[in-house]
Amino acid sequence: MRLLAAILLIVTALNPAFAEDHSEAYYQHLLCDGVGKMEYRLQDGTRVDCLTETHAWEVDFQHKWAEAFGQAMHYARMTGREPAVLLVGDNADKYAGRIIALTKAHEIRILVVTVKP
Fold it and tell me: Domain for residue 5, yes or no?
């Protein structure tokens, strides 16, 4: 299997509508609307936040980075798709080292959205 290049994209949103007080579902819609199936239920009862033709996405807030990675890996195993994570928060630098280390160790796509209220 070839190594998937990890993508670390930092987007700064200055619009207050992007503040972290929005729910996880808000960001699921931003990511998935029109490109995949939201809340796709798996045989074991878990739900993929966004299932596309190529990826199984987990959407979560940055402070829950470890949980998000674990869920994405599980969803990928269950669906045969590539794992992917969208992390949302206002302090990407705090988690950057951990995120980069995991993307180097595993074939996983990452999108980090930094929000500024």
Answer: no
Global pTM exceeds 0.90: no
Q: What residue numbers bound the domain in which 33 lies?
A: 10-115
Determine the Cα–Cα distance for residues 95 and 79; give it in Å rounded to an integer: 27
Q: In the chain, how many H helices and how many E strands?
A: 3, 6
Number of domains in the chain: 1
> Which pLDDT score, from 0 to 100, does residue 1 have?
19
Residue 97, number of CB atoms within 10 A of its CB: 9
Integer Cα distance of 75 and 10 in angstroms: 24
Nearest-5° Cα angle at 105, 100 to 108:
70
Domain annotation covers residue 4: no
Give the tens place of pLDDT for each residue, 59-94. Answer: 998 889 899 999 999 999 999 999 999 988 877 677
Evaluate if residue 104 carries a pLDDT over 90.
Answer: no
How many beta carbons lie within 10 A of that of residue 27, not counting itself?
22
